[in-house]
Amino acid sequence: MSRLFMFEKPLGMRDTLPELYETKHSVRTAISEVMKQWGYQFMETPTLEYYETVGAASAILDQQLFKLLDQQGHTLVLRPDMTSPIARVAASKLLKEDLPLRLAYTANVFRAQQREGGRPAEFEQIGVECIGDSTISADGESIALLVDSLTETGLETFQLSVGHIGFVQEFFIDILGTEERVKALTTFLYEKNYVGYKEHVKQLTLSSIDKQRLLDFLKLRGGEEVIDSAVKLLENGKGKSALLELKQLWEILTDYGQAGTKVKFDLTLVSHMSYYTGILFEVYAGQVGFPIASGGRYDRLLKKFGKDTGATGFAIRLDRLLEALGKIEGKEPVQCILFSSERRKEAITLAAQKRYEGVKVVLQDINGVTDIDACTKLYDEVVMLVGNAGKESAR
What we know:
Blueprint: H1 18-37, E1 41-42, E2 48-50, H2 51-57, E3 67-69, E4 75-78, H3 83-94, E5 101-110, E6 122-131, H4 136-152, E7 158-164, H5 165-176, H6 179-190, H7 194-203, H8 208-217, E8 221-222, H9 225-233, H10 240-255, E9 263-266, E10 279-285, E11 293-297, E12 311-317, H11 318-325, E13 334-339, H12 344-356, E14 360-365, H13 372-378, E15 381-385, H14 388-394
Parallel strand pairs: 1-5, 7-9, 13-14, 13-15
Antiparallel strand pairs: 2-4, 3-4, 5-6, 6-12, 7-10, 8-9, 10-11, 11-12
């Protein structure tokens, strides 16, 4: 093992420098306010959870979990997602009334990477969970809120794709017959490897009709007409109930004014999160090669914590959203008050007054500055309160 340099960080970890931090804070605040307006309440969960509970329920691959032992010998994990911890809290402490919970969060999650490849091992998510509501209205609300949240950040161009994992599973099992064969085919969908999907279908021992059904499945993308196209591919009614849910969802999103604009169907959509049970969705934007947000229905996850109830939600990846937004203009100006020792009190009083008025102010002793011109480049405005002794120092 080679010796580490003092400035090196663990694989996949990132530093957030001041300018990016301020941008992230601004975007996070904008999204948080939208979520609060929709009636969602923010909460926090511990960074560390038990491996046997949240770790096992999270659906994140075991090799991606950061594990450590506590003093009692229990295996702990750094939380790999936020849905499972919130499900734990909801099941144990909050689901005492027969009313849906609307919870929100913003937190860092941790997933180990074998090779970095631009994928961080620690990243921030902001999202919501609607727990205790099994209606399609809840799915529609989740999608509408996600669109609202992204729009509020100033993101103008993005596409939200909606699918149904239940439809994919029922359609595939009806044709392929076994879970193993279904898993092999859905892997191509998850990887967006449509060429590999087509080659795999051609090699299957199926009738030419069933092979064509599997190939036509890849065309199920677009607006409301996709539902009719999907119905034509079905036999024995398998998958029809999922399509009826999607049709109802489209009507709900039409009422929100979002169907066909920011939102489209993509019935080939699948997820690596195994706890999704119904409608699911993801968002792509700009030149970002990965989803900037994703979510869906997970009606069986709460059962792992002793409560059998429906739930849906989404998470936004802040790092990817910032990449899609690009450089955000309009940073608040910062003033710098340069002072010498004999005018220090005057400078402190002036700074306090400006801060009270909402102005960002930096106080700087002139003896700590070697280059006055550098200050004028760093700050938007420089005010000099310098006595005779200070003038000598400034030269």
